[in-house]
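Lecture notes, continued. The same structure-token format from the folding unit now serves as the input rather than the output. Read the line below as a description of shape only.
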């Protein structure tokens, strides 16, 4: 695994790679991380995995000359030279792509919904569409979601492991104002300071994937950033209000409303953001609307992206040997 992440850049890449790492370990494989990141990123990976911390994006060198069976690269900063070096030292190279970038020979996973969903392109070797999104094992096999409740009783507020723009607390306050009788679940990352106590707001800090899935399944609606979390919310069938917090989230903001009815409130620094979030919460009061959005969302992401990739790689390697 070659990736980057910290409390400043966020942990989206680490989360995606963790899904692949856990899936590979479950298949009996071994995982080594080459991580340009801080202690928060290392903690997010968890114990029991080998982690080498170094800035690898310029040279792509692996300490000790390790040759990988599968090298997976999830990075916005990796140079073409580094990616070529990694590819030359691995049997198969997988590139996780958000932006439609160019890569050396290898398999490209592009889960963002901005490319036409089609069969695998053998010429480009691009696996595209939300069904390829890597989700962590607790999201693979979920219980069926209960029908929408008549009233909004629980609201989930989540803006990533770092919440770089400090949106979690003000969005929790807005949710409290809109639904004074409801329970607000505010999710924070490990490195974030605990907020002051607020009536009706439960704070969950540095929770694991299983706890996250439980919160999403229990939530009537979510207010969320528009990155990796969108795919997890869709898998759980949770109606969501999306706020763009990074440039690489544009594809999600552009396409998820048409995919399932998720509501885009705008970007984090929009002057009318609070008004648009309030309007979206009012729209989601209707249980019929919530039921429709949730059912459509769950139909977009089935949670099998990790299994799907490894199955695809195994079939490809068998075919190459024949």
């Amino acid at each position: 695994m070659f990736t980057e992440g910290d409390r400043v850049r966020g942990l989206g890449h680490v989360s995606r790679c963790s899904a692949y790492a856990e899936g590979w370990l479950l298949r009996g494989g071994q995982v080594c991380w080459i991580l340009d990141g801080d202690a928060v990123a290392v903690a997010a990976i968890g114990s029991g995995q080998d982690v080498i911390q170094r800035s690898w994006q310029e040279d792509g060198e692996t300490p000790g000359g390790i040759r990988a069976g599968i090298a997976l690269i999830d990075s916005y900063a990796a140079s073409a030279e580094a990616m070529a070096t990694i590819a030359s030292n691995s049997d198969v190279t997988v590139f996780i792509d958000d932006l439609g970038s160019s890569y050396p020979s290898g398999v490209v996973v592009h889960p963002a919904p901005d490319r036409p969903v089609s069969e695998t392109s053998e010429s480009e070797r691009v696996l595209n569409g939300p069904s390829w999104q890597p989700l962590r094992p607790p999201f693979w096999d979920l219980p069926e979601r209960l029908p929408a409740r008549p009233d909004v009783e629980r609201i989930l507020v989540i803006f990533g492991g770092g919440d770089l723009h400090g949106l979690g607390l003000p969005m929790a306050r807005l949710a409290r104002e809109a639904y004074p009788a409801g329970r607000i679940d505010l999710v924070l990352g490990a490195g974030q300071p605990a907020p002051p106590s607020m009536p009706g707001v439960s704070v969950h800090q540095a929770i694991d994937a299983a706890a996250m899935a439980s919160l999403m399944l229990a939530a009537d609606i979510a207010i969320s950033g528009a990155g990796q979390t969108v795919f997890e919310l869709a898998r759980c069938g949770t109606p969501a209000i999306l706020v763009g917090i990074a440039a690489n989230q544009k594809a999600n903001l552009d396409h998820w409303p048409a995919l399932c009815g998720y509501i885009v409130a705008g970007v984090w620094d929009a002057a009318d953001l609070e008004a648009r979030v309030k309007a979206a919460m009012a729209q989601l009061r209707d249980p019929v609307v919530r039921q429709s959005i949730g059912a459509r969302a769950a139909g977009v992401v089935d949670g099998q992206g990790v299994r799907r990739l490894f199955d695809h790689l195994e079939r490809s390697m068998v075919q190459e040997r024949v």
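Point for the exam: Residues 87 and 93 are 6 Å apart (CA to CA).
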